[in-house]
Structures are given as C-alpha cells and as structure tokens.
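Record Multidrug efflux transporter MexF, 567 aa.
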Amino acid sequence: MTTAPLALLACAFALRAADGPSVIRVTARYPGASVQVLDATVALPLLKQIQGTEGVTRTESESAKDGTCAITVRLDAKTDPMKMQDVIRKRVALAEPVIPEKCKRSGITVRTDPAQPVEFWFALTDTRNPDDVRDLADHARQEYADVLRRIPGVNEVRVLGTTATDSFLRITLDKEKLRARAVSVEEVRAAVQATNDVVTITATDPSPKGDPRLVIRISGQLSTTPKTLDEIVIKLGNGQNVLLRDVSRLELGSKTPNELTTFGGKPAALLAVIANRDATLEQLEPAIDLLRKAAPPGMQFTMAVTPVTPRVLRLEVLVPDARTMEYTQEKCKRVMESVLVWNDGLPAISFTDRLQTNRAELLVTCKPDADADALQKRLAGEIREATIRICDVTGGKPAFPVRVALAGPDAEHLWKWSEAIRTRARKDALVNDVADWPGRDVTRHEMSFNKEKAEELGISLGKALESLNSLTEMHKFRGEKPDELNNLFLKNAKGELVPFTAFATLNPVVESASIYRLGLERAIRITANAADGKSVTDCAEKLHALAESEKANLKLATGYRAVILVP
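=>
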C-alpha cells in the first residue's frame, strides 16, 4: 500500500488558508453522549456565555455524534484575535459549573485558528483480517487519536468506522499481571458473571497486542458501569482476593461498525486530523513516524488524502430512495469502484453515516489534469439511483462554497423551508449541486427488558440477547419497528415458547446525526457550487433572496432568518 510522502505535509501547511480571517474555536469532548445531550449540556451553556460578547459577529456550533462539540466564533475586523481568545476563555470558565464533569475531564480548548483549517485523512487497515474494522476503529480511538491531538497545531481528530451508540463493555486483561498474581481468565470470567446485573460474556478474543479480552453485554436497568466493574473482587483458590482493575483495563467499544468506511475500496478505520496554521512539519512528523512503528503486526497506518497536489475532490452521494444503510452502502461501493477505475487506482476514501441512511461521502486524490466534469457524467450514467455532487477542495479550499444558513425555533419548519429553497434553486438553475446539512432527525428503537417478568416466565435474558444477536447478523431482525417483536419467540426453562413481547419492548428514540446552531437557534446550512460563469458571491446573494421569498410563501414567523455564510 502506497503512503504519501511526508514532504507533502510541508506543502499542505504552506497552502493553508492563512490569508483568510482568524476565528476563535472552542472544542469540547463528551465521550458517549448522544447528540441531543451534547447540544443541551455543553453547546448551549457555552453559547449562552459567548453570545453577545463585544467584538463577536457570529457564532456557529456543531454537536456531532462522536461526542465532539465545536463552536466557531467569528470576529469583526477591528478585534484582535489573540486578545479575544483570552476573553472567550474566561467566558468558557463561566459556563463550566453547569457542564458535565466527564466533559470537563476530557478538556475544553480555546484557540485562534484560520477560518478554513486544513484536513489530513489517515487510514488504519489490517492485513490479517482485512474485512473486519471492529477492532480497527476502537484501536484508532484508543491508541492514535490522543497522540495526534497532542501535536501542536492540531485542532481536532475524529475517528470514523464505529460509534458509541451500539456499545458494549470490554475488559482487556494484562497477561503479565495475570501471571504475576496467579489469576486465570476463567476466574475473571466467573467473577464478572456473578455480578447482580444480567451479564452475558459473548466472546473471549485476543486484543491487537495479543492480550485476552472479555466482551461483555449487559441488559436491563444498569447499575453496572466501567467504574463499578473496576471494583469487582476476584476470589482465588488460595483464599486471596484481587481487584479486577489490578489485572485489566476496562473500556467502551462497539459491537459492530455501523458506518461504512473504506480506503481504496477496502474496509478501514479513518482518522480526520484537522490542523491550524501554527502546525509545522517538524511537529507532525515524529508523531506519525512513532504511530507507524508502534502499529501492531498486520496493521498499517497510511496517509490517505492530503489537501495538496496533485488534486483533491470531494464527492457527496445522495440516495433519495434509500430505505436502509445497506442500500446506500451498496451504491457507495459502486461509486468507489468507478472512481478507482477513472482515477487509475490513486487513493480514495469513503464513509457513510448510520444516522443519515441516504448519504455517503468520498475524498479522492487525483491527477492535476483530472476532469471532474467527465467523472460526474460517468457516475451519472452508471449509477442512476443516486445524485452525486463533486467539488474541488485542493489546498484546503472550502467544499461547496455557496452557503446560506436557515435559523429558527422549529427544526421541522426549517427542513420544509430548506426543501422549498432547494427545489426552486434546482428548477431555476441558480446554483449547481445544492444540498443541505444536517439531515432530518431519525427515529430508531431501543430494546428494553423487564427483568422481573423474564424471571417469572423462566426466560434467560442472556439467551435472549444471543438470539437477537444471531437474528441481527442474519438480517432477520433490524429493530426498526415495534411490531418486529410480534414474530419472535424464545423457549423458556420448561421448553415453552414465550413471545418476546411478554418481557421486552422496542421504544422509539429520536436521534440526530448532528445539531447545528447559528447563535442560539437551531439551523440548517444549504451549500452549493456556483452556477457556471457566476461568482460565489453573486450566487449566494441570489440563494439568500430565494430563501426570503420562500419564507414569505410558507408564512413563517418573524423568528426565522436566512444568513449568507462566508466560507
């Protein structure tokens, strides 16, 4: 597998958006939080303190499903960014008393950045098991992301390939500590199994470094957490006791990857490194070299896409009629296959989002003379079920630079407003490749069990979970509709068939892929390429005028507004 030379990094930072205005970026991490919780408990408290500060012209926030909250604070031309950084840091301190402790422990950073930071994408692949990225994404998050975040000039690192929404507890045992204390894996298993919650140990498998691991699934109203499991006492045959934490490491992971992430058409975990203009090659190179050398046998850490020559294209694949993520992933694979043929096999990455089942993205490094129009025509002819838009992002240029934000109190009205604008914009050919972000909230269903009822019926919840896992793997159970439980039965201790509906329910839970705010208001961002022969500024003004016209047509209240965003 070819690795892009590190010399490209020097070019990348030379091509950074240094000429653009500086902004203040506030970044917080709240691992494990849903988008809604992150927005309500982190983004809003910070925004309320920052909003209205003298010298601040606009704030935008994004709460993402990976637990990252990013707030961009834009300043007027007369304000000194470095002095304002200290002011914003004090404002953040005022919000901290109401921000969750877990978020504060992860750290809230305030820094001055260029308005358009540069991005580097890395791929983590495994030659030993190339089709399974479950361990890759967890390994990238645990071993790579924090190292990259500590590099001066790196703003944020995001890992794609798994999410915390389908999680389990994993115990990684230390072989040397087990040997030193004469503790066996079976003694650990027995101690964990004896906890008062329903615990199913679904596997004992080696970690990337070869240490044994116990994969734990826990159901019901949980009192068990990584912290309480830490305190489990392992009783040894010689009468001595050992705490679980003395021989292991506990962590949250994901049962299965629920995103499609690929490098060159093959499964991979992806890391997006977002860097500011203060980064230098000397600061970055040692860490990258260290990570490559420290990779476990079979794992490869590769620079996949850089914002420099020869050329970088961003593709968005929109599948309007997508019913499932699998359908969108299949279309994305076909796009990737076509791109790799067109691009003579040069690197490309792709990723989808479980919460936006109709959308996928690709980043393609191609030759300087690559014809993007020819690629778009090729894809339109080969894949008619999807709409594909392409933008040149070489040198850190913003993707789809015609941008208008719609803000207001009700998300449903915002989506209807956006849909009306996009429909008219396409019909009147005001812009090219128009789309909006983030997508609509989606409803999924969470399984909950009644432990008392299950025990009364003679049902083992451990076996119930194993049955559901097997049915899920065979695609016979999706957990998307409450009535799916009507056709599921399980044998109890007496051999009787018991319907799942007697002890389990599927409850609807609304989720967002991201929550975007303009100031304190929920917002949607419409993006597009400029129409042929037109400037970005001219197209943005026409799109804004169209937004005002559709606002009047929909009779939206005065609390709704459209704002032109300068990339």
